[in-house]
Amino acid sequence: MATTLDKVDVVTVGVGWLGGIIGAECSKAGLKVRGLERGAKRGTEDFFMAHDEFRYAIRYELFQNLSKETITFRNTRKMNALPMRMMGSFLLGEGLGGAGTHWNGHNWRFLPYDFQIKSMTDEKYGANKLGSDYQLQDWGVTYDELEPYFTKFEYTAGISGEDNNPFWGKRSKPFPTPPMKKTPILQRFEKAATNLGYHPFMMPSANLSESYTNPDGSTIAACQYCGFCERFGCEYGAKSSAEITVIPTALETGNYDIRFHSNVVEVLKQGDKVTGVRFIDTVTGEEFIQPAEIVVLTSYVLNNAKLLMVSNIGEQYNPDTGRGTLGRNYCYQILPSATGFFDEQFNTFMGAGALGMTIDDYNGDSFDHSNLDFIHGASLTITQTGQRPIQFNPVPPDTPAWGAEFKKASIHYYTRTLNIGGQGASMPHKENFMSLDPNYKDAYGVPLLQITYNFTEQDRNLHKYLSEKTAEIMKEMGAKTVVAANPLTDYDIVPYQTTHNTGGTVMGNDPAISVVNPWLQHWDAENLFVVGAGNFAHNGGYNPTGTAGALAYRCAEGIINYSKTGGSLV
Amino acid sequence: MVNEKKGVSRRDFMKTTGIATGTLIGGGIIGGLVGYNVNRDKGTTNTTGNQKGNNSSGQTADHPVNVGLKFFSTMTAFNVLSQATERIFPEDDIGPGAIGLGVPYFIDNQLAGAYGMNAKEYMQGPFADGATTQGYQSRLTRAEIFTQGIAKLDEEARTRYQMGFAELEPEQMDEILTAFQKGEVEMLAVTSDFFFKLLRQATLEGAYADPIYSGNQNMEGWKMKGFPGHQMSYIAQIENEEFQKIEPQSISSMTH
Ligand SMILES: Cc1cc2nc3c(=O)[nH]c(=O)nc-3n(C[C@H](O)[C@H](O)[C@H](O)COP(=O)(O)OP(=O)(O)OC[C@H]3O[C@@H](n4cnc5c(N)ncnc54)[C@H](O)[C@@H]3O)c2cc1C
Ligand code: SF4
């Protein structure tokens, strides 16, 4: 028998960046908020001994324990979906701060084009540029409408950057902190890109260039370029994340608390409203019901979709009929790249997660696609994140994968190899979607989420074109040998790519093709909000969190309004 | 069998490099050929690691009591593992190979713990063969895969050359390892190429993980590679044009 707890105004499922933002904004507005987080409490003090590649980056110390819960995967509907038994393609977060604790901190605003991709693409290239299998749609919110919330997220996080990219949307305010250091590696990229007529700029970074106190009063320290950033927590409190910003802000109001080790297994719904959530205490095994006026799902893209599916809220997407919205438009990230092998040595082991320079000359619709067989593009970036020796064993083509030659080459090139990588956009396709797995269950008896996903023609074409462009820049940088990424074949869940899963709980103006309205309010339950990159109708040419953060701030405003007036926000 | 325990560099380097006290002496890139099997007292430089048990010169009383096998139960199996890792990451003029770095002990330790037991992997059935894009689908744990794989390496050596794997010539070992890498050797409930992938990855982990995990002896793996290990900050150096040579430091320095 489940124990029923006292009702709260707002419950968030999961306490990462987005749960933290909702928690802070709603508790500041006087609402009683509880965060339910399946993982443990943790913070800066836990990361003093984090410069341990093996424990954190290889053995995945901070990530989701797959023995308890994973997903199943297949490339196509013809295949048997099987569990992702080992972590690989993406690294799911768990514990206070979620994946934001161990993110890189590349902080982007999606382009104005992204939010109106369907209308703008149709207008410029005709209605059938990609064909009917691609489910392009506008997001129901424009860049201009979202601009104040982008700014809000950037000022909370203290983002370091410079506003000299001609291709991104207009900013109402400068970056809160100046860009990070332009190291020799970055300068080399800058020079090459400029020579080729491109417009390089310092990547907006959540590793801060200087100490900063945000409008809520939280202080974020200055980055030390320690080289143990992504996959690690920051021992300086210099990487902006929920547990050093929005969580303390929320806690200070006295209106917020977090219950850890609380794994939510169901959203409870009665009629056209939700009443709360059911969760398991993972320490004692006890079952609880947390009643709430408003339920907010902030459990990341995958579990947001899964919880709606297991709770029977909304209609499951069916690729045969095209009906149903839940699970629709699952997208990922396409990663064009080029590697350069140099004669000279670089300090590749130094760096920070978001230390980099970028060009957007091939992102969004910055370039003409009339004669190209794809739309959109990628931000192309050189990063200096700090290469670590277990993971980074670069060897020129035709070097054996082991043995004497491998050893020599991988040691030689460890400090003589640079990489330019793109965060490529990913367009929704009717065959790429999420659903519930019929065979496999998690540790609490709940079905696993199933992902059916493969790269598409659009992806392959984009990848090829941009890998070539990237290789040209690398050549201009003076690499002795330049190797463009292999052509994309099938999506493979084994090698790490990015933790930029998107879609499945898409936002929009039309309930026939979206799960939530532009305030992220569920179409079928007005007191249920679903927040995350799952709201993205497609994935853009950047990392997702800056845009997800802006959507969360806008959603928090919607929740506060809803708490006063009730009813649909649209 | 005795040789790798005597003279023993592990104790030696603890003493001579002062790892325990946090100070670091010596151990340059070429000069620091320190491994489990270097009998420094006798001036030998046999770092290829003779763990075959056929070259022993008597057990010393002062072998390091914190080095031993936690997973493998026979030296035969352990020696196969050792030689296989050494072929993957051999000693050369840059520095020690897998054996000299303590990689076999590192792998043995890992197999005895969470890694070997797949503690953080989803191991519920039903198990089915999948496409390679679906990743690990074996019902076996890594410990089970290694046990079988190491036995198979030896079996394959006996079939091909009527000798144990650890007694083969390097080229013969390579031939067999290549057959594993190509998935040509029959294994049960797992493919040989998958086992080879695990073995290769574990070898690199042992060569380059912080020495607290018992590989990367004396941080020689890092020294070869020019990786300084745990450093608090590079803010003062990151703008330098020149390559920065920095003495590596283990994360153990934070606990001493
Ligand atoms: C190595 C790495 C590098 C990255 N780098 C970047 C980057 O540079 N830029 C960028 O934009 N993005 C980056 N990302 C992605 C970024 O981390 C995520 O987009 C972001 O953290 C998502 O925030 P979230 O709040 O939606 O989800 P999360 O941070 O994942 O938080 C969700 C929380 O919900 C909890 N939860 C899940 N299910 C349940 C349940 N059933 N019950 C209770 N709690 C639950 C989880 O434990 C987790 O704490 C990176 C990710 C990784 C792993
Ligand atoms: S690189 Fe900077 S932000 Fe990242 S962990 Fe190190 S000090 Fe922190």
TrEMBL record, chain A:
Keywords: FAD, Flavoprotein, Oxidoreductase. The keyword Acyltransferase does not apply. GO terms for molecular function: flavin adenine dinucleotide binding; oxidoreductase activity, acting on CH-OH group of donors. Residues 221-329 form the Glucose-methanol-choline oxidoreductase N-terminal domain. InterPro entries: FAD/NAD-bd_sf, GMC_OxRdtase_N, GMC_OxRtase_C. Residues 428-552 form the Glucose-methanol-choline oxidoreductase C-terminal domain. The keyword Chaperone does not apply. PANTHER family: LONG-CHAIN-ALCOHOL OXIDASE. Belongs to the GMC oxidoreductase family. This is GMC family oxidoreductase. It comes from Ureibacillus manganicus DSM 26584.
UniProtKB/TrEMBL annotation, chain B:
Signal peptide: none annotated. It comes from the Bacteria. NCBIfam families: TAT_signal_seq. Pfam families: Gluconate_2-dh3. This is Dehydrogenase. InterPro entries: Gluconate_2DH_su3, TAT_signal, TAT_signal_bac_arc. It comes from Ureibacillus manganicus DSM 26584.
